[in-house]
Amino acid sequence: MATMIEENGPSTHGQSEVSSSSQARQKLEGLLNKNMRIRMTDGRTLVGLFLCTDRDCNVILGSAQEFLKSTDTFSQGEPRVLGLAMIPGHHVVSIEVEADSLDDTQGFGANH
Q1: How far apart are CA 63 and CA 54, in angstroms?
Q2: What is the rounded distance in angstroms from the CA atom of residue 112 to the CA atom of residue 102?
Q3: How many structural domains does the chain have?
Q4: Is 23 part of any domain?
Q5: Residue 72 located in a structural domain
Q6: Digits of tens for pLDDT over the chain (112 positions)?
Q7: CA 30 to CA 41: how far, in whole Å?
Q8: Helix ranges restricted to H, the chain
Q9: Which ranges does the record mark as transmembrane (predicted)?
Q10: I need a labelling partner for 28 at 20 to 30 A (CA). Which of 79, 86, 101, 105 fits?
Q11: Running DSSP on this structure, what letter comes out for residue 70?
């Protein structure tokens, strides 16, 4: 769901956009401290705890590990421990929330 956040003050587009904005914010808040897998444009994959994002879609992961794109499709290789990592939004290809992280979260389509 795309959410428009205006830089110069509150939106004058109506109540429905405000409610969708608050719903998007609630979903993001529900994902805080969940394990995420982020694929980047250069083929690397980072796995870590979702700590923060901003309006430019930059993402901060805690306890992050980096997996390099391997030529063998069956092996991910050894992870490199990064710790705290910032991923620029324009390098993000996809974001996945690990299913184990969602087991205790309701309303995000987790299958029990």
Answers
A1: 19
A2: 10
A3: 1
A4: no
A5: yes
A6: 333 444 444 445 555 666 888 898 899 899 999 999 999 999 999 999 999 999 999 999 999 999 998 655 555 678 999 999 999 999 999 999 988 766 655 444 444 3
A7: 26
A8: 15-31, 99-102
A9: none
A10: 79
A11: P
